[in-house]
């Protein structure tokens, strides 16, 4: 797909996107292959990206840093338009999708922090007994005769 001349003049090359987002070019290609961002080809068959892709990549990077799986990022971004910059309302709708997921991650990390404190010096040294690796001792139930 070739964009109109006006869009082409403000478009970014893959190198521009990578540099502005502080990621390797291969990551830009990976995000595109995963359907997280979209490009088009100019008359010279070079990839070009709209400037709004920079915000999408910023959201992807933050989400990945917080441990959100790529499939969840893809699902959330799917509600946003790829051919234009999303409105504030569209960004808010997307962020609401992550509220429950983020609350669960916070709860899991809090539980880990609490349990980790009790693990220091516990001496169990056994994955079969460890409450962090084996919650509710499910291995013992599986291994019982």
Write the layout of secondary structure elements.
Elements lengths: L4 H5 L4 H8 L3 H9 L6 E2 L5 E2 L4 H13 L4 H8 L10 H32 L18 H6 L2
Antiparallel strand pairs: 1-2
Descriptive labels:
Multidrug-efflux Transporter Regulator, Chain: A, Domain 2, 145 residues, two-stranded antiparallel ribbon, mainly alpha, 2 strands
| Helical coverage, percent range | 55-70%
* Unreliable runs: none
Q: How does CATH name the architecture of the largest domain? A: Orthogonal Bundle
The total domain count is 2
Put the structure in a nutshell.
With 145 residues, the chain is an all-alpha fold. The protein has helices at residues 5-9, 14-21, 25-33, 53-65, 70-77, 88-119, 138-143, and strands at residues 40-41, 47-48.
Question: Would you write up a description of this structure?
Answer:
By secondary structure, the chain is mainly alpha-helical. The chain has 2 domains: 1-86, Multidrug-efflux Transporter Regulator, Chain: A, Domain 2 (Orthogonal Bundle); 100-145, no CATH class. Helix content is 56%, strand content 3%. It contains 7 helices and 2 strands. It has helices at 5-9, 14-21, 25-33, 53-65, 70-77, 88-119, 138-143; strands spanning 40-41, 47-48. It has a two-stranded antiparallel ribbon. A hairpin with a 5-residue loop joins strand 1 (40-41) and strand 2 (47-48). The radius of gyration is 22 Å and the shape is elongated. It starts with a helix and ends with a helix. The mean pLDDT is 82.
